[in-house]
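Field reference: sequence -> structure
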Amino acid sequence: MEQILAVDLRIVNGGDERHETFLSTTASGSLFRTRIYMFYGERRRRLGNGERLRKFKRPEIRSIDRESARRRRSRRWSSVAMAAVLDSHFLALTAIVTVVYQSLFFVVTALLKFDKVTDFAGSTNFVIIALLTLILKGTWHFRQVVLTILVVIWGLRLGLFLLMRILKWGEDRRFDEMRSNLGKLAVFWIFQAVWVWTVILPVTVVNASNRDPPLQAQDVVGWIMWFLGFWIEAVADQQKLNFKNSPENRGKWCNIGLWSYSRHPNYFGEILLWWGIFVASTPVLEGSEWLVIFGPIFLTLLLLFVSGIPLLEESADKKYGNVASYRTYKRTTSPLILLPPSVYGNLPLWVKTSFLFEFPLYSRSLPDEGVNWYRENRAEAGRLKMG
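Structure field:
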């Protein structure tokens, strides 16, 4: 056993505080005081934004086994280092909360065969993560508050809209093949948890940051993108709902309002607003934090190639593929970006495919007669060149 001198320190940040202990071998009073002042000054220089340093106990002599103390410190700092790596940006916390939240709704869906809360669970999960990270950090920087409010507005609007819509329509056809297959249902909910955690990464990292640079052009540009995207998505959703609710439109595809400029304007709005949130987060990002760009990239790829546009295009092609007016609508209407039909319809096919997301997989379910519009478009372009 060995006697050492110990000083307990308290580090305060807002309403949060943590304790650290400085240990020194026994020495004369003046020498020990010198060591304390040196440690105290060095620790003060390493304080983070908003942190304050306090001694909260008088120095005291403790009896300690040096080897045991070394092992305890090693274990303690290993745990602290691991926690810092995992959760310095609330990544572990948000992952756990997301998995738990989605698992609760999965259990409800699996046991009660009730799938009407699926989209509500996904949208409100964004709200929970945004508010939780903002409150836990407690710095309340203006940029953090604005981005959190934008996510809350989007999540509540979309979640309530989709919940009311499915309650009125009565069923979600996406789950026709999953209700009796627990494995497929579980995969869907796991994928939804990954979607939530990944897409909201820019807000999670901003809310976890101590940095608060002045407002920059990126902030304003990002907010404008969000407002445009939110307006497009909300208007498109309401226009399609009104169209579907009208008895005279039964059996027709929606081609009014924004839907006359894009076959999927709601997805265009959603992609635009999440890219806006990323742009508004960039003044805070440093180093590896720029990897949060994977959030909007993941959302874009998901809607373009997995669960968004391909599924809806396949369904519409099977239903209306033999209708001449539908094929005309599809040929002259952009799949995503809002464009006048007179402009989009006259563009060469290679421009549509290369720059405007008109991928061949969006027409793989068209009947033979419908698929010919691709060939006809190429033939027409060839005739124009020859003429």
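Note: Residues 57 and 191 are 50 Å apart (CA to CA).
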